[in-house]
## 1
Amino acid sequence: MVGHLVGASRNMQWAAQIEDLRKDYVLKSETVQALRGVTFDVPVGDYVAIMGASGSGKSTLLNLLGCLDRPTSGKLILGDDDIAQLSDDQLSGIRASRIGFIFQSFNLLPQLSVVENIEVPLFYQGHITRRTRERCRELADMVGLGDRVDHRPSQLSGGQQQRVAIARSLINDPYFLLADEPTGNLDSKTTAEILEIFDRLNEQGRTIIIVTHEDDVAACTRRTIRLRDGQIQFDEQHAQRPVSEYVITGED
């Protein structure tokens, strides 16, 4: 199955298309407008940082991009899928097979080995084969853990656990990697190592969306979208700062 999925998203022009996206929450008698007409596109191969203060709509946008919630109105197309047209079961399928999640807290299963954690998304889809296990080992090697495939999370450093999470996010060849504060629990040196992996993946054509509050991390992407009060404050392309400079400017 992995052989079928690899490269499946590469013929698309857009990883995500977002037009006039709105999300309202009704709290008792008050309606809170978390997103108020957000519009932007993410071409395949883009490398985007999404930033914003608490209450800016950043978490709401993350939940919508991750198919964890539905918009109140507006267009949200992920790859070839119009999210508004999908059932709950179909949304669950998109989350499982077409979005690569990377979390601040890693979200690894402690009783499983590195290679078993990487193959978890395939397990839930019933796609475990000898070839998929080989693919998991290849991904472990790609993130520098080829000699630790039988280790459990408790035997790994924070940076190594995040490497496992990155490998796991790639197993289904997703439309994009959606990383929520992926370096928030890491020191500066380890953060730079994780950002170097993202750099390599992006150079290979992977679409990466990072939600971060760190200007230093955003500077290592190629585009920054900043939200304020549920709207886009600015959306700008910028020169990508070499990760080697992060260790200098981002040191504790």
## 2
Amino acid sequence: MTGTDATAISINVLSTLALRGVLTEIADEFRVLTGLSFAATYKSTNMALNLIAQGATADMTIITREAIDRLVRDGIIVAGSTTDLAQSGIGIAVRAGAPKPDIGTVAALKRALLETKSIAFSRLGASGIHFADVIERLGIADEVRRKAHISDSYVGEVTARGEAEMAVQQISELMPVAGIDIVGPLPDEVQKISVFAAGIFRAARNPGGAGKLISYLAEPRLVPVLIRKGLEPVSDRRRGTS
């Protein structure tokens, strides 16, 4: 396939849910500026890894830096093609208009988790795995799990429908959901900042187009878009260490 042919086809992207808001917003401008379009499939990082283990591929992927590094070691992602794009912390949301609990300290968070009647979080997503560890550390895992609604998509939608009073997920995954209000991030002592990175599959049909999309997403001028979608630029102290 020639370079011209490679850039003529759509870019196939396997992306974490955390970057969905950004990719949706920039799609039109990217197409106007480059003449390229992309089609994205959105999964949690761990669901994406499961699909890749079963043989799924694409032109590029956007997942956690830890997962990208693993795929590079396995020879699935091209070494040298990876770029950190954004980072995000885990937050809590409630149904729109509902009272917002105090979660400003670990003690307040523990009290809020015990007092809520129901809570939604993910099973396979990085936020859900970390939250499961948090409630173990707080000694309230059994109480929280008894009233949990588990989902592997946008858990904020469960809360928006009134099926759970509280939702826990990456802030960037809560923000696109209509019908919820974000309470705030988890306290620093129990927070986990995830760095999201992009890389090109060794089996990519359109590596040239994928490289252009990765470069576009890494441009500093996109920082306001990241912030608007609940993400942050990758800080030096976090870069590559998620």
